[in-house]
Design a protein that fits this description.
Elements lengths: L24 E12 L2 E13 L4 E5 L6 H8 L7 E6 L2 E2 L5 H11 E4 L11 H11 L4 H14 L15 H13 L5 E5 L7 H17 L3 E5 L3 H4 L4 E6 L2 E4 L16
Parallel strand pairs: 3-8, 3-9, 6-7, 7-8
Antiparallel strand pairs: 1-2, 1-4, 4-5, 9-10
């Protein structure tokens, strides 16, 4: 894998980093263009983003603005038309196919809006799945999965089919599954979008607690501005451009110079 020193100048998404710091995840001039009939649809138009260890960053924007596309590219679930992604100073472009698969399984946890659980499998089997794919023995994978379900408050529901759980419970399982492999980076794409206000609040509080207790670096895409304000920074994605939103995050957490 090819490393980069993480330094370049003049892009709108750069942050002022402490001396020698390397961002956990950095996007440089990302463009994503889809072909729509006879025309090109530009979803990302030169996005720059730099997120340091321990940050919880919210990305807001209207439906169709490209928030999901950006998170998918950061997670190596999709590829940009042009531009580069660096994780801990290493370029995604320099990774082999097997290294990309390893990155997705070990380095990043991803939570979708619609959880994507296997409905006929139990909650504990769903959480254990990425561990089994990693080659962890079944008994050990199930033990780890049970521990994570206990951490998200679902120990008593471990053996219930995922399809029989409530929406809030399913998202708790999704967070347990995303973090069972102990990734450094958590990406959550509208995890509260399908939930009522009470469940949305509970899921966000869960995400905050997990972020702190497991020392994660987290990026949340959300429509919920009230929740976004409780993150360290809030960025706006609209018309393919990512910039400061004008919405204040938690006091003292905004890093000077980011996305100006």
């Amino acid at each position: 894998m090819k490393a980069t020193d993480g330094h370049h100048s003049g892009s709108a998404g750069d942050s002022v980093l402490s001396a020698g710091a390397v961002p956990v995840i950095r996007a440089e001039n990302l463009r994503k263009v889809f072909r729509s009939g006879d025309a090109d649809l530009t979803v990302l138009a030169g996005v720059n983003l730099s997120v340091n260890e321990g940050e919880l960053v919210a990305i807001v924007g209207p439906s169709g603005s490209g928030k999901s596309t950006l998170l998918h590219i950061l997670a190596a679930l999709d590829t940009p038309t042009s531009g580069a992604i660096y994780f801990a100073g290493y370029s995604h472009q320099a990774l082999t196919e097997s290294e990309v698969s390893d990155f997705r399984n070990r380095r990043v946890g991803f939570v979708w809006q619609r959880h994507h659980l296997l409905p006929d499998f139990s909650a504990v089997e769903n959480v254990a799945m990425p561990l089994l794919l990693r080659g962890i023995p079944a008994a050990e994978a199930m033990q780890i999965a049970r521990q994570w379900l206990d951490e998200v408050g679902l120990a008593a529901r471990a053996h219930h089919p995922a399809g029989e759980l409530s929406g809030g419970e399913q998202q708790r399982v999704a967070f347990a599954r995303a973090l069972a492999g102990e990734p450094a980076l958590l990406l959550a794409d509208e995890p509260t979008g399908d939930l009522d206000e009470g469940n949305a609040e509970a899921i966000f509080e869960l995400m905050q607690r997990l972020h702190l207790s497991h020392r994660l670096t987290s990026i949340l895409a959300t429509h919920n501005l009230a929740l976004a304000r409780r993150c360290h920074r809030v960025l706006q994605l609209e018309h393919g451009i990512l910039e400061a939103s004008g919405i204040s995050g938690q006091p003292g957490s905004q890093r000077k110079g980011e996305n100006r």
